[in-house]
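User: What would this chain look like folded?
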Amino acid sequence: MDMDLSPLTALALVCTLNRSPAESSSQLLAEQVLNELRTQEVCTELVRVVDYDILPGVAVDMGEGDQWPQLRQKILDADILVLATPVWLGHPASVAQRVLERINADISATDEQGRPLLGGRAGIVAVVGNEDGAHKVVADVVQGLNDCGFSFAPQAATYWVGEAMSGTDYKDLENTPDNVASTTRALAVSTAHLARVLRERPYPAL
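Assistant: Here's the prediction, encoded as structure tokens.
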């Protein structure tokens, strides 16, 4: 078998509620994740989901006006998926939930060897908020993506949560906290490694 020598690719889906060009803390953290992935020779792309018309539903294509098929193809073309979301009322943002619901349309789809269609891809979760709840949001997103076939390296999540009931957002900070920066750097290294392993030694046929 010929080895695939093309660069690894990563897609970041930013699930902020704010359309472009509004500033976004979720996008800032996603950009920092992608910056670290680029140091691992990964080609990257970032999409702000609310800039697309993603119809509600759990089908691959919900028909006229639905732009999910465009994002779905980007996911299929990527080795790594980064899902970045704010915390709202202790949960992933509604945009992130919609992304998970649309990804769920492929939960039973398989490739020609019977493996999950979305298998062989690595996942990363990035969370921001000014209240507690980051661990719960990470758990929700990782569980949903893993159910659909994504694999996760150890500690494949990064987050920042500000003081409860404060008005400070991640994008308002003068500097990235050291713990966030080091966590983001570490997950990029481990996830790029996992993605290479998955490409070079795919899961066995089912």
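The longest strand covers residues 80-88. If you want, I can go into more detail on any region.
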